[in-house]
Amino acid sequence: MSKTWNWGIIGPGKIAHKFAQDIAKLDNARLSAVASRSQDRADQFARQYGAPYAYDSYEALLKCPELDVIYIATPHSEHYRNTMACIEAGIPVLCEKAFAFNATEAREMAELAQRKKVFLMEALWTRFLPTTQKILELIQSDAIGRVVSVKADFGFKADYNPQSRLFNRELAGGALLDIGIYPVFIAYLMMGRPERIQAIARMGQTGVDEELGVLFQMGDGRMAHLHATLLAHTKTEAFIYGEKGTIHIHTRWHEPTHFSLIGEDRRPQNFHFDYDTNGYSYEAQEVMRCLNEGLTESPLWPLSRTLELMETLDRIRAEIGLVYPGEHQ
Q1: Phi and psi at residue 121, in whole multiples of 5°?
Q2: Which distant-in-sequence residues (6+ apart) come within 8 Å of 73 by Cβ?
Q3: C-beta of residue 119 within 8 angstroms of C-beta of residue 287
Q4: What's the CA gap between 246 and 244, in Å, rounded?
Q5: Could you tell me what percentage of the chain is helix, strand and coil, using 3-state DSSP and rounding each to the nearest 5?
Q6: Tens of pLDDT along 216-274?
Q7: What is d(CA 85, CA 108) in angstroms, rounded to the nearest whole number?
């Protein structure tokens, strides 16, 4: 009989609700505990999803008697502190993207997990979706030939609140770490680390990037054109251009969706996937698969790739001159 894994959640925000909904649909997972800085908020979340334990501090959660793995869904600014505490307590972690403030923090998180031999993975959920898996399979089978260019965007019109995690500089707000990470991720996944990066940003009143344009160039000349904005709804599509064809990932490309393979005859072949979850179930399943096998990293998204992605995000921030207060360097 396969083990049922008891999950804890730190930070019961919007994305944590989606994750909890998906956990409830998995036979080998149950939500055991939730922690918030507000007992009322923790209690309400626990009641909604049937979790037996609710805590008013993140530290208290670490002492929960029924806990196998923790999902961290706090703002970016808290990821380092939360993850380090969990790893020190010997508890496996799935930590939301962006993984940390910067690569320095991410490296310390990874090094501690490796030293303690505790599982750690970035919750870059798009990497584990069946759509992404199929796209990689098609590319590896030479369906579009060598990838020569990537174009991707992500934009929505956010309600302006200077204290919210999207616009608050102290919470590592801005377009890049919240949604810009997706276009950066797909370019990195398809072509690797860029040799050159050019980036420009529209900085808002709170000092964060509200809109961002990024250009990558690989060592061999291949390019990626990336865009993210909190100021307008965009198509949020991605195109992977190859020497023999194109993969068009339809809106909203970062989440459960469909894509088209356009070959040399220019006739699209459409791929559709049936989902009965929000899509976060796939990253949770990957975590539990790794834990069942005694792994401390996911071979699909190892810590080395998380660190390279964070280093790339750091380079983009250097281009636009964005530094967060209290940044651990």
Answers
A1: -150, 140
A2: 9, 10, 11, 12, 13, 15, 16, 19, 96
A3: yes
A4: 7
A5: 35, 25, 40
A6: 999 999 999 999 999 999 999 999 999 999 999 999 999 988 999 999 888 899 999 98
A7: 12
